[in-house]
Every structure is written in C-alpha cells, then in structure tokens.
Amino acid sequence: MIVHATAVLTAGAAFAEDFGNVGTLMPRETVVPAVVANEGLSFGGHNDLAGPTVRAITSTLGPGAEIGYRMSDRFGLRMPFGSGKVSFDNTFADYDVSGDMKLGGVGMLLDYHPYEGGFYMSGGVFKTSYSFLGSTALDIAETSQDVTLSVRQRREISPALSLGWDVRIGDFASLSTNLGAIFGTGFDAIATGSSPGVLQPSVDAGISDFRRSVGDIRVLPYLNVGVGFRF
Q: In CA terms, which of 44, 81, 119, 167 is 20 to 30 Å from 228?
C-alpha cells in the first residue's frame, strides 16, 4: 500500500510540473487578448480598401475620368468629369429636329457603402453644361420655314443621387457602374427665323410647344461605366 501511494504521488507531482511548464510558455492572461487583438485587425473587412482611385469612364457627361478617395470602410468621395458632343436627328415634341448636342460637366459625390460588397449609394452636386444648337422646320403662313434652335439649361449646378456597384479585379483594378439622376430646372429654347421676311412673333408662336417641352425636362439621367486602379 505504501509503495502504491508513493507511486501515485510521484505521478501527480510530475503532471503538475508539466502543466506548470505549459502555463509558463503560454500564460493564460495573454492568450485571450491575443486572439481578440487578431480578430480586431480584420473587423469590418474593408480597411484595405482605403486610399485614392483613378478611373477612365464614359458617362452621360461624355468620355472622361473620375478621381476618388475611399476614406473608410463606409465612406468615400468621387469627382467624375467629362465632355463630348453627339449629333441629334430625330423627332422631339412633334418637331423634326437636327443638330449637335453638347455634353459636359463635373460632379462631387459622397459615397456610402452600407454592406461589405461592392454596392454603394451616392449623393452630391453636378455642374453641367448641356446645350443644343440645331434647326427645325415650322409651318408659318402656310409655308415651311427653317428656323435655328438654341437650347441651354437654366441652372448649371444641380443636386444628384445615384446607386453604384464596384467589382474588384485583383488587388488594384476594378470595374464600376453608376445609375442615377441629376435634378435640374429645365431648359430655355430660343428660335430665330433663317429666311428673310419671317416675323419673330410668328416663330415664337410656332415654337411654343417645343419651348414648353424642353422647359419641363427637370430630371436628367446619369449613367457611368468605368475601369479604375487603386493606389
């Protein structure tokens, strides 16, 4: 019995000594904080997205570029800009219109990323320079008369809202698209007769429906597609 008890005590002492060595190598008070600290390094999953971006874009402003800065995992700033010209030869408000439409502008947008994916919502302002210069034909005194049309926006600076999606390609590249609207105050149209003897009051009366239609254009679509790089 004495020999058996001695063996048990000896084994217990050896186990206690081994356990003490383990505790010395990995103190209990440092294990849990280390795990918590490691988890905190990846909290939110977006810390690596912060920084500047540059994109080549094509949009309803025309071909251009976009400069952005991701401030945090939730917020970022973007400044898109572009300019261009497109030909228009179609019917608008029952008028056969042809000419050139000038596009262009620059915006400042604040992005909000509510989720961990590439979806985001944006709000901001645009300074745009949309205009049109062309011609149409009016029936004046039972004859067809060509008149010159000049259309310009009433307000250059307007608020805007959009939804966007950004898809990362590798560590630095990305594809992005935005769809939204710019909220303006309509357009003004001026028409002048191109033939001698055509009275301006007759031209104004003939163009009244066209002028009313362009004046009612208060919402302009904003579409943006681009490829960019993050630094």
A: 44
CA 89 – CA 8 distance, rounded (Å): 102
Exposure pattern of 136-175 as b/e (b: 16+ CB <10 Å)?
A: bebebeeeebebebebbbeeeebebebebebeeeeeeebe
Paired tokens of 209? 């429906």
Going through 1-118 in order, the beta strands assigned E by DSSP cover 51-59, 62-70, 75-92, 95-112
Distance CA 230, CA 54 (A): 7
Half-sphere exposure of residue 57: CA atoms within 13 angstroms, side-chain side: 28
- Residue 111 · residue 78 · CB < 8 Å: yes
Q: For residues 189 and 85, what is the distance between their CA atoms, to the nearest angstrom?
A: 18
Of these ranges, 34-38, 191-195, 213-217, the one predicted with the greatest mean pLDDT is 213-217
Give me the half-sphere count of Cα atoms (radius 13 Å) on the Cβ side of residue 145: 24
Q: How far apart are CA 155 and CA 128, in angstroms?
A: 8
Residues 6+ apart with CB under 8 A from 189: 149, 150, 151, 207, 210, 211, 214, 215
Pair of tokens at residue 137: 């034909």
Radius of gyration of the chain from its Cα atoms, rounded to whole angstroms = 34
pLDDT tens-digit readout, 21-44: 444 444 444 343 433 334 333 333
230 to 51, 53, 124: CA distances (angstroms): 7, 4, 22
- Give the containing element (helix H, strand E) for 35: helix 28-40
